[in-house]
Amino acid sequence: MDKADKIANEGRKSISSYCINDCKSYCCRKGYLVMSKKQLDVVVNNKKEEYKNEIKELKNGKMSLFLGSSGKPCPSLREDFKCGIHSNPERPKVCGDFPIFLRKESKTVLLSPRCLAVKNNLLYPYVKKLQLEGYKVLKVDELPDISTINFSDK
Ligand code: SF4
Ligand code: SF4
What is the number of the ligand 2 atom nearest to the C-alpha of 43? Predict the structure, then answer.
């Protein structure tokens, strides 16, 4: 883990209570989650039948889970707005990275425009630190839909 990873992690940590208490895990309730079949099994667990209309296989073999149908947030989201599989090694990497994505090869940091903390500029101190490390920050309007980005995952 290099300095940029540490800064990004500090940024994600800094908003954790905001995520639960204020935002109420919007990112686990809306949008698309793209992951491997193994990860999908863990995320959906025993609710496959209930979520069958929300699950699609993509051309690249990855699975897409639509979060946003009425009353159907991520099946792993608990009632207290915490992730029920937080420490499971099969939890999709994008869940751990959201809303800060580092692209080291291009020294770019992408911030999800869907994130309320990003919209409210709560990550500013960390974004500033990443800029001081030479990272270019993609402005929110350059990133219209995070779901179109091909996240490298394990
Ligand atoms: S959308 Fe942003 S602020 Fe809301 S829970 Fe997700 S990471 Fe936290
Ligand atoms: S797996 Fe956990 S962090 Fe990821 S969308 Fe579901 S509840 Fe949210």
Answer: 1
Residue 102 pairs in a beta bridge with 109
Tokens of 101: 């994505």
Query: Any idea which residue has 């999908």 for tokens?
Result: 40
At CA 74, angle to CA 114 and CA 121, rounded to 5? 25
Please work out whether the CB of residue 14 comes within 6 Å of at least one atom of ligand 1.
no
Omega before 99 within 30 of 0, i.e. cis: yes
pLDDT one-digit tens code per residue, 58-117: 998 999 999 988 889 999 999 999 999 999 999 999 999 999 999 999 999 999 988 999
Determine whether the shortest distance from the Cβ of 112 to ligand 2 is under 6 A. no
CA neighbor of 151 nearest in space, from 112, 77, 113, 101: 101
Q: How many A from CA of 79 to the centre of ligand 2?
A: 12
116 pocket-lining for ligand 1 (C-beta < 6 Å): yes
